[in-house]
Amino acid sequence: MKRRAALLILFSLGCFVSDVRAMVTTRHYDFEQGTAGANATELIDITDAVIHENSDDFFGWGGHIWIEVAGGQSRPLPAGSLPDVVADVALVDPSLELNEGQGVYVDVSDGSQFDSPAIGSRLAIQFDGKTRYDDFFTGSGSRGVYINPAAYEAGDDVADNVSESFNLMTQAWVYPTLNTGEKQTVWQAGAEQGSVNITADGFWQFEDLSSVGTLNCTQTDLEVPYSCDEGELEFPVAFNEWTHLGIFRGGNGAEVYINGVRVAGNLAPDPPNFFGGFANLITLGSRDDGTNGFVGLVDDFKVQGEVSLGAHNMDYNIVPSLDGDYNGSGDLDAGDVDFISQAIIDGANTADANGDGTTDAADRVYWIEELQKSYVGDSNFDGEFGSGDFVEVFSAGKYETGEAAGYAAGDWDGNFLFDSSDFVAAFIAGGYEQGPRAAVAAVPEPATSSLLTLAGLSLLGLRRRR
Questions:
Q1: Cis peptide upstream of residue 78 (ω within 30 degrees of 0)
Q2: pLDDT for the residue numbered 378
Q3: Helices (H), 207-254
Q4: What is the pLDDT of residue 460?
Q5: How far apart are CA 115 and CA 421, in angstroms?
Q6: Cis amide leading into 225 (omega within 30)
Q7: Measured between alpha carbons, how far is 168 from 292 in angstroms, rounded to an integer?
Q8: Cα–Cα distance between 416 and 408 in angstroms, integer?
Q9: E strands, 117-161, where?
Q10: Which residues pair with 147 in a beta bridge?
Q11: Which percentage of the chain shows pLDDT scores above 70?
Q12: Can you give the pLDDT at residue 448?
């Protein structure tokens, strides 16, 4: 596994910059902050990055910065110095607030009745057809803006140092529970950047795309107006099942995705379709006017912007069949520990092994102790941490080389390097020569200082052998 360093450049705004990628998740509503059965009055955005940097130089700036602002914000940005304007208008964790009705947190953890496919998910929001959330007071829609990084750092005026981003993707896991015989809207992103709907006769339909028209069957030309021709495939809704849905508005067209597969749309139709506006409101559970209420569950709702023109991706994940098998190998192995380590570095909540709603260092320890049933340092996966693990990791030849190393090669602290800090992490965990974890209770643990001394002696012995 190659090591990818997260880009952690701190700007004067006081927020970390996201790592470089084609798409950035500007908002992520994972619903993990509640309690099953409780009312959900505010849906929390768990993202913390405000400024996103990219090396693409399509503006001639030597790269660019991307930020999210409200859909109705002055275009492209208000006048003034870039740092001041960005600090004033860039959206920071906008919540979706309850507008009407009442959504409820529902248990969707592994083995539960609704068992969400979103990796690590414990909770989703249940809608009853009368419930609507929106960002009217917290964000009032979404629009992306590109910024000249040199001008930003120099404190220059907005002037010619900004450009608008005309791209937006929204996606989520959806579990419809009832065909009401009336149209339902799961979510809507303004009048031109997409809505996901269920027709009265039970088919998926994607609307609010302005001149693109309505996408409700497989097609590529985006003729306007558009209706399904005989023989074309429509998309029936699977009620009481999870389906992943995504809608992307960009270029001069749109694309829609079902379960990670592009099923309709064209980003470069002929003749082209143009934008007349941006997402002036993000609504979940119905249309922005409160009609077409949705009945069912929604999990892992994301709003994403495009940092690199012409490139985007879906966050479609399938829960591994084996609990903790994050790399999909079919076994619990060192690659799963590395997956957790990378998720922590990326700030991605994709490996919540202990189910506390976040992916952090505690998940590595939980995976090793509760799923592997062993100790930090057990790199040969024999169920205990001992001298055999030293042989294993030193055989990989990564110690103090600066080369990327995974858990099997000595990365016991999760930074993808093998050095002295890994021995500190392993011996503080207290498992050295304790035998299999199930038999640990009757064995007293040596003091940490003694363990570290023992580690040093072991290192000397192993290096002499080499």
A1: no
A2: 93
A3: none
A4: 46
A5: 39
A6: yes
A7: 23
A8: 11
A9: 123-128, 132-134, 143-147
A10: 65, 162
A11: 80
A12: 44
Residue 4 has pLDDT above 80, yes or no: no
Q: Residues with Cβ < 8 Å from 457, sequence gap 6 or more?
A: none
- The b-or-e profile of 289-301 (16+ CB within 10 A means b, else e) is ebebbbbbbbbbb
Unique residue bearing structure tokens 């520990």: 337
- Does this model's pTM top 0.90? My answer is no
State the Cα–Cα distance between residues 28 and 45, nearest whole angstrom. Answer: 5
> Residue 282 is encoded by which pair of tokens?
């993000």
Place of tokens 């660019």: 64
Helix (H, G, I), strand (E, B) or coil at 148: coil
Measured from the Cβ of residue 456, the count of other Cβ atoms closer than 10 Å reads 13
Distances (CA, A) of 447 to 155, 237, 366, 424: 54, 60, 22, 13
Which residues 6+ apart lie within 8 Å of 308 measured at CB? 21, 22, 54, 56
Per DSSP, 385 falls in state B
Give the dihedral sign, CA 133/137/141/144.
negative
The residue to which tokens 């248990």 are assigned:
107
- How many other CB atoms sit within 10 Å of the CB of residue 338? 24
The Cα–Cα gap between 42 and 196 comes to 21
pLDDT, position 24: 78
d(CA 388, CA 390) in angstroms, rounded, equals 5
pLDDT per position as a tens digit, 282-329: 999 999 999 999 999 999 999 988 755 444 566 776 544 567 877 656
Q: Of 169, 111, 170, 173, whose CA–CA distance to 316 is shortest?
A: 173
